[in-house]
Amino acid sequence: MQITIAAPTRHDLPDGRNSDYYGDHPQDWNPYHPAAARPLAYVAEELVRSLNYQARITSFDEESGRPEGKAPPSTPEILLVDRWALQDEDRRRRLAAFDAENRPWVTMVVPWSREDHQSRAAEAELTEKLEATMPAKMRHGRTFCRAAARGVPTMEAFGQILPQVVEVAAQQYLKHATAYPPVTGGGHGERTRLTGPMGSTSYTPDPHDPATEAEDL
């Protein structure tokens, strides 16, 4: 399971953005600071491994140069997006191009702390920009996937919803990976498999959130 972080570093923040939530690398992003002590990528990695999956952390800036497009997926993926990352126009264009590709094995989660007053003040503007940039990830998928893309307000909610979006990514990966024949070799390859029993927690989206009102796709 690949965990990809789309976030700025403290060295390339939008003007005026508080640097307390960031580090030297995108993987250092900690949206739930100060309530959470560790960067979110490593919290997610621990949760994914607790579900009996292997996990690999990377950044969107590193990965966006690797076109996958219609090629068979190499791994299921969780994309953690900081809305502030869209203030960089080059990164915003790359996220838009990523969204335009059909990658249902990638599920998006948008951590968005209700205690981050600066983010709350800019929420309407940044939400509109994310919806315009990544409409497919914002509107498609199961109800809880759409809710995760609209904003996860606390670390507790993140810990509850992540197992659900991990399971969706894994299911979609198996569905699409097995649709492609082996590229090389003459023998019969073993069917792609993933392990990872679901946890017992569940996340209930806000019933008044527009993301929960549409029918599941």
Walkthrough of the structure:
The chain has 217 residues and is an alpha/beta fold. It has one domain. It has eight helices and four strands; from the N terminus they run βαβαβαβααααα. It has a four-stranded parallel beta sheet with strand order 2-1-3-4. Strand 3, helix 3 and strand 4 form a beta-alpha-beta unit. The longest helix has 23 residues. The chain is globular and about 45 Å long. The C terminus is likely disordered.
Topology summary:
Blueprint: E1 2-6, H1 40-50, E2 56-59, H2 60-63, E3 77-81, H3 89-100, E4 106-109, H4 117-121, H5 123-133, H6 135-139, H7 143-150, H8 155-177
Parallel strand pairs: 1-2, 1-3, 3-4
Organism: Streptomyces microflavus
Protein name: FxsC C-terminal domain-containing protein
InterPro entries: FxsC_C (IPR026367)
Keywords for this structure?
217 residues, alpha/beta, 8 helices, 36% helix, globular, disordered C terminus, FxsC C-terminal domain-containing protein, FxsC_C
The termini sit apart by 23 Å
Mean pLDDT: 84
Q: What class, by secondary structure content? A: alpha/beta
**Mind describing the biggest β-sheet?**
4 strands, parallel
What is the radius of gyration computed over CA atoms, rounded to a whole number of angstroms?
Answer: 17 Å
Poorly predicted residue ranges: 182-193, 197-217
Strand order of the largest sheet: 2-1-3-4
Share in β-strands: 5-15%
In N-to-C order, the SSE pattern is EHEHEHEHHHHH
Query: How many structurally independent domains?
Result: 1
Quantity of strands, as a count: 4
The number of helical elements comes to 8
Shape descriptor: globular
Helix content: 25-40%
Protein name: FxsC C-terminal domain-containing protein
InterPro entries: FxsC_C (IPR026367)
